[in-house]
Write the structure tokens for this entry.
Amino acid sequence: MAGRGACTTGFAVCIFLVTCGATSRVMSLDSESFSKLSNNIESWINGLHAMTSHAQVLKRDLSMEAGVSIEPVYPQDLVKKMALNIKDLLNSKRHALLRIVEHLEDATTTYLWSDYLRLNTSHPLLMKDLDPNNSSHEMTLDDRLGVPVRYNISGIHVPLEVYEGWLWPNIREHREQDPEILNGLHWSATVDRVFQENFEGDSTLAWQYFGAQTGFMRVYPATTWYVPPNLIDLYDARLRPWYVQGSVSPKDMIILMDRSGSVHGQTFTIMKWAVKTLIDTLGENDFVNVAAFNSTTEWVNNCSYCEVNNTTDNLECTQPLVQASTTNKKLLFQAIDKLEDGGMASYTNALTFAYDAFKQFEGTRKEGEGANCHKTIMLFSDGGTEWPEEVFKKFHADNYTKSVRVFTYAVGPHPIPTAVLKQMACSTGGKYSVITTRSSVRTKIQESYTSLLSPAQPLSGIHTDQYTTAYTSAVDYLQVLARPQALPLAESMVTFDQERVTEELTVSLTRPVYNMSDYTNTSALLGVAGIDVPIQTLKNLSPFETLGPNGYAFIINHNGFLVLHPKLRKQLSYLLGPPHIDLLDVEEDILKTNIIRDTMIKGSIENIQVLGKISVDEAHRVLYDGIQFSFSPIPNTSYSLGLVNLKRSDHLVIRNQDNSLMIPPNISTTVIAPWPYCRGQQASSHTDHLTRLIRDIQNKKRTCKCILFFNYMYSTVVFLKLEYVVLYSLLGINLIYTFMYGTIMI
């Protein structure tokens, strides 16, 4: 490989000499002389490389070390092996999730509904009430999660407005508690045994949970649901990406907003809030757009597609539906906030506009666009008398639009008349709902369509697994807020594992849970069960010691959104939607990158080389060089894995079979590779981290990858003995840096 690297360098220098030398002499050379000159320059470059890089010295000195071998590395083999390791990891989570779902569904077949339950008979453990500083709560610091937990029970979270309804239902004078919530807590309580068995049987298992359609959520193990002072807990599991993806089938949705003069004031404010809440229930597999109507109808943001994709192409600018990504949602929110009311409403005009948009979308959409499942029109109005009979006759006769369902919402303190809205919904297989106050928006929106558009109940017993993109876990994030350094000392004396608790992103594996009993008091869909897989767990499976500091692993899902990537950053709030960062947003935007993305989405196994930029030395330098992408699908998932490295980093791995720990003579000047050596410790290159690692390994305080750490320490100590250390310190910083990380480029 030394020759190949030198040849490439020689060619570059040759061109430089020709262009910078005497032009007349070069022009006078014939092809044979030119070839001879080229070979001479190549030989000179090879000699220069050997003299300055001391590649042979490196091989000679290492060959004298017992137990050391220099071996080639093949990225194609690495990516296949890592993909299989991730598959095995996720398969273990799938089996755990299946046990949860089967137990919950079996529980519905034997549970007897009761109208006489009370809060004190259901015994729910509300996580907001848990206090790690209260010894009676019997909380233990979990090494795996890094927070105080209770292993014998799951904790309960209930959204704010549901909690109010739970204690004070609609008939307030009876002071009754909601039987839907209480029965849900009662029949699902037995799942704690399955939670506990899963947790004890899998050392990599993190949070397990069940979110009910009625609003409450079970989390195992139980922990504190910390809400910062002076803030309101707005978390609702039913609006989170893991629940949205698991509870409702993909859909193409057009939202129609009545902006006539009659909605002026409070009604229009409630309507805007309701529409934005509806959009928040959509996931990345959904396609949506919003139109406002009075006597005419138009999209609230005609160029939402253009703003996202930086194009002014007329065809794309008029694309009726856009993917419900976080970026597109923000653009729609901004446009909705700018709407003004006025004029007379025309249901005929609005519905014709929506049906025509569906037909246009079918004719213009690209491969992969559209949900190819449900089609819905969501109409928000304060009421009206116009019955658009001819519109429904025309489009119900069309094969493409006859399956479109219309869901109607009567909005405002006193929406009248509403008979037409009810008839629209009933005649198309939709549903009619009433939203009179802003406080009821979230519950009404959630209940309005999920029962009708949820995945079909699997009569064959086969469930559909859903893998989310990366997002911020609420439980992990709230533990970060509860850290002692985030609070005044007087407010918290809680013990946390500071290195373990982070606001890292996570992915979730989810499945819907159905009511399998003959007697059903609620809809067929009871909720969604899920298991978190922290992104760090996936990172730990990457062959970082083989790739070296210039290489990295990344994962995308079937939509091209990042699940794992060094440039995928943490979010600022647990209430935010997934970041939905596309691979093209973080990799250099060149033609081949588009090809790589599309090929990965199709599930191909390939190795592609491109010429582009890559950051090295922990992003201190940028190289314009050949970059190698090796990728493979992760079996049984919607993910595809890729490994990236410099083309010329088809490097060699230094391995040492000696299991003894060699400690550098000067730890304070030793740079440690930021790898996960021990479970429960975050990767860091700080020298203090090295000191802690050595202490933990010597004292056997944690479960550590000792061989990996021993090899790293070995390479650090042995490197200091090599005779070319001073020369490389001046001329070969990248080689030194790479070798210090356990790999070399020759």
Summary: The chain has five domains: 2-51, 75-82+543-650, 84-244+459-535, 249-441, 653-744. The chain is about 40% helix and 20% strand. The CA atoms of residues 10 and 42 lie 5 Å apart.
